[in-house]
Each structure stands twice: as structure tokens, then as C-alpha cells.
């Protein structure tokens, strides 16, 4: 009888130790995942906001009668604007994958899907701040 109590006590000790170890590992992994996700959001949102602040307007249409050099300069400006806009849409796509705020998701997906040069991401700063808890 004493041996049975000794074995059952030993078994319960092993089970409780294993359970506590598993629970600690699970909670640590979960906290690490949440922390990593938050750091990724902060980094991505920071890059997106910085690019949004630096975004320039689409170059206005040139007037009739431009010289060859002026037309080339205008085409160069448009090319640079398109390249930066493509990079901005890439950052917006990355942020869309990380966000959980439905309003921010709508704003980002509308920006990504729309080819209108007049649409910008100005005004998403408040939505991003709400999601990461900065006010």
C-alpha cells in the first residue's frame, strides 16, 4: 500500500511538473509571438507613414508646346512618381497583412486596388495609432 502511494505521488509529481513546463513554454511562445507581431506592426506602420508623408502629388500635365527637353523631364518625373507609388503600394500591402482594424483594412485595400493618382493614404495615422495603442 505504501509503495502504491509512493508511486502515485511520484507519478502526480511528474505529471504536474510536465504540465507546468508545457504551460510555461506555451505562454512564453504566445507572448513572444505577440511581441514579435507588435514589433513588426510598429516597424511596418512607421515605414508606411514615413513614405506617406514624403509622397508627392502626381506631376501636373504639361502645357502644349513643350520642348523636347521639357517633355523628357516631365516623363522622368512621372516615372519617378510611379516607382515611388509602386513602393508605397507594396508597403500598404504589407501593412494590410498585419492589421486587424477593419477600418484600416478598408482604407489600405482601397488604396492598393485604386489606380487614381489623387487617392492617397493621408489620414491613416490615427487608425494605425488606435491599433497599436498609441494616443
How would you explain this protein's 3D organization?
By secondary structure, this protein is mainly α. The chain contains four helices and no strands. It has helices at about 1-55, 70-100, 100-115, 125-130.
Spatial separation of the terminal alpha carbons: 65 Å
Q: Catalogue the unreliable spans.
A: none
Sheet of most strands? none
Helix amount: over 70%
Rg measurement, Å: 27 Å
The arrangement of helices and strands along the chain is HHHH
Tell me the β content: under 5%
Query: Using DSSP, what is the number of strands?
Result: 0
Helix-strand layout with pairing:
Blueprint: H1 2-54, H2 68-98, H3 102-113, H4 125-132
Helix pairs in contact: 1-2, 2-3
Short synopsis of the structure:
The protein is built from 4 helices and no strands.
Features:
135 residues
Amino acid at each position: 500500500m505504501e509503495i502504491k502511494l509512493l508511486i502515485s505521488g511520484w507519478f502526480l509529481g511528474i505529471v504536474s511538473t510536465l504540465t507546468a513546463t508545457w504551460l510555461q513554454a506555451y505562454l512564453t511562445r504566445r507572448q513572444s509571438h505577440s511581441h514579435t507581431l507588435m514589433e513588426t506592426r510598429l516597424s511596418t506602420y512607421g515605414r508606411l507613414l514615413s513614405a506617406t508623408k514624403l509622397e508627392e502629388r502626381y506631376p501636373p500635365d504639361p502645357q502644349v508646346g513643350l520642348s523636347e527637353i521639357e517633355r523628357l523631364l516631365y516623363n522622368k518625373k512621372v516615372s519617378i512618381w510611379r516607382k515611388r507609388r509602386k513602393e508605397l503600394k507594396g508597403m500598404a500591402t504589407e501593412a494590410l497583412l498585419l492589421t486587424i482594424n477593419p477600418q484600416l483594412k478598408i482604407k489600405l485595400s482601397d488604396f492598393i486596388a485604386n489606380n487614381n493618382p489623387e487617392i492617397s493614404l493621408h489620414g491613416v495615422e490615427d487608425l494605425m495609432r488606435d491599433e497599436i495603442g498609441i494616443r
